Amino acid sequence: DVIIVATRNKGKVKEFAHALAFLGKPVLSMYDYPDVPEVVEDGETFMDNVRKKAKTVGDLLGLPVLADDSGLCVDQLDGAPGVYSARYAGEGATDETNNMKLLRELEQLHQGEDTEQPLLSPARFVCHLALYDPANGQFVEASGTVEGWITSQPAGGGGFGYDPLFYLPAYEKTMAELSLTEKQAISHRGAALRELTEKLKQR
Ligand code: ITT
């Protein structure tokens, strides 16, 4: 018995392996199923994309599959990069080029303001999860968010993606300065996983 997560994002793989370790089952990802093609994420919402990822991979493998669609929504950029978070800097984008683009866009907005304030805009991480079972065609879904600020002073070597730029005033740290356990306790993904676990328990 295994848990299959339909992701090729190494940061997500690490977080799911950590968060689901208590189940005592191997947590597999698309690195364990290299023949499964990349699912085209052309939905307009996290919910559309997460269902598509879970259903496509679940139907292909004939096994229950968990998918995660997530991203960063920045208030002063009208919610961007949102569902485009993974490819914000374009084709071949990396965490580094995405972070550079985000800082460039926000610093342009703040141009001319003579302030030492490193906090550029309120923002939130959003995570949608879908567990799809091809045996009955049913989905169990959950979501979570976490509020913070985009900082012009990146910090921390943990996490992935936009974590070094995501400042949490209550902790006086960025998300990348938290341990895996600390991040899971407050993150969008941690919240979504707790909701999903509750729903599964009630069944
Ligand atoms: P899969 O579709 O294979 O799961 P992906 O990276 O393409 O991988 P998404 O389409 O859901 O996944 O994009 C999520 C992006 O949002 C991710 O690449 C990061 O840039 C950002 N992101 C999501 N969760 C994050 C987190 O916990 N910390 C930092 N950045 C995050």
From TrEMBL:
Binding site for substrate: 7-12, 70, 160-163, 183, 188-189
GO biological process, one term: purine nucleoside triphosphate catabolic process
Cofactor note: Binds 1 Mg(2+) ion per subunit.
Gene Ontology CC terms: cytosol
One MF term in the entry's GO annotations: nucleotide binding
Key words, A-Z: Hydrolase, Magnesium, Metal-binding, Nucleotide metabolism, Nucleotide-binding
Pfam families reported in the protein's UniProt record: Ham1p_like (PF01725)
Annotated residues for binding of Mg(2+): 69
Top-level taxonomic group: Bacteria
Catalytic reaction annotation: dITP + H2O = dIMP + diphosphate + H(+); ITP + H2O = IMP + diphosphate + H(+); XTP + H2O = XMP + diphosphate + H(+)
Catalytic site positions: 69 (proton acceptor)
Protein EC: 3.6.1.66
Family statement: Belongs to the HAM1 NTPase family.
Protein name per the record: dITP/XTP pyrophosphatase
Species this chain originates from: Paenibacillus anaericanus
